């Protein structure tokens, strides 16, 4: 079975939604386009939000289960008799698996039905997390963390690539930001769910953390199956009727309905005409993208902001507790959640400007980084625990729009020249290699620098400030060379 793309220029229908001005240039009706994309948002953004919420929740579950029901002696650390080395090695190898497999997973996605591939990621992540509940030693934990990294690789760059198939670049940043809010909501929800599952400790012989893995894993599998029907396939493709009976059954019952009517589809085609000019690629194209100098400033931009984001995500509650030792563990958990609500607010307020003023994306990105830097300086040097806590809220607000801007800018730079593979490879490289910032923040700084805890993590915070400064410089470099560097 092969799926053939329709040539956008082959369409001979005349659209009422287009206007020809006096210069002969065609302009599409923006009001109709806005209605069209709102209709797509209902299907695409809602589906991606659920996908990202559950896959992120699975990842966040791991950190929480390490300490669940500690007083009863039933935490994962106690049950599996884990050492610090085993925990660190398991997490590090999972990150390495993400980095290695992000690119090949995204390349596969350019050749198959994208909604099927995203559903596959969701289903396999859920299945693997179901199996966490049968772990019985540290070696098993290390193995399953690696498997988690392999099956989950490509989810973030895959979603960014999928957005590039359905939305023009000037509408993509806010859409990426919309489903990126799932990360913040899942971070807040994870703590609440952890408290609930600890109440189930001992039910039917399972510990609280075993129940948490099993229930969240099953829900993720069910969501993945639903995505096969909910998310639409690529736009503008002609599907040949499969000869295989199983594929015919699959096509009949699981092929998702197209989200647009005929008139909207033709208007959508015209708006995305440029996106569907370069649809085939070779390994030579992949080589050109990897060696294109413009990809590296984008990776450095992502390195700094995702490192800072994950550093605060993993150790935000620790920072709050160290800054204000009088707080109870429940109070610390309650104070942790608003950081990510501020993050969500930053996404909703700033990302629309990054779409509307595409030429100023590096300035908007740099401005957001400066907000994060301000927050880190406040939380490091302000007097009093509550003033320091306000700095974390400021940093959270600045973090929100940075990652969506990186991903949308990568597609804007590499999509027009390299087409389909440009969007896929740039997203995978920026996300995969940029995630080394996560390793730096979580293993080299906060957890790998025990002496810094007595300084209230002053040096770790300042290293994040340095990383963000380098990200700002990289955004300037990328702006200067984005239209000048050519490979072929």
Automatic annotation (TrEMBL):
SUPFAM superfamilies: MFS general substrate transporter. It is found in: Membrane. GO terms for molecular function: biotin transmembrane transporter activity; dethiobiotin transmembrane transporter activity; solute:proton symporter activity. It is a multi-pass membrane protein. One of its GO terms (cellular component) is plasma membrane. Keywords: Membrane, Transmembrane, Transmembrane helix, Transport. One of its GO terms (biological process) is biotin import across plasma membrane. Residues 51-486 form the Major facilitator superfamily (MFS) profile domain. It holds the Pfam family MFS_1. The chain crosses the membrane at residues 44-66, 86-105, 117-135, 141-164, 176-197, 209-231, 299-322, 334-351, 363-383, 389-411, 423-446, 458-481. It comes from the Eukaryota. This is Major facilitator superfamily (MFS) profile domain-containing protein. It comes from Candida maltosa (strain Xu316) (Yeast). The lineage of its organism: Eukaryota, Fungi, Dikarya, Ascomycota, Saccharomycotina.
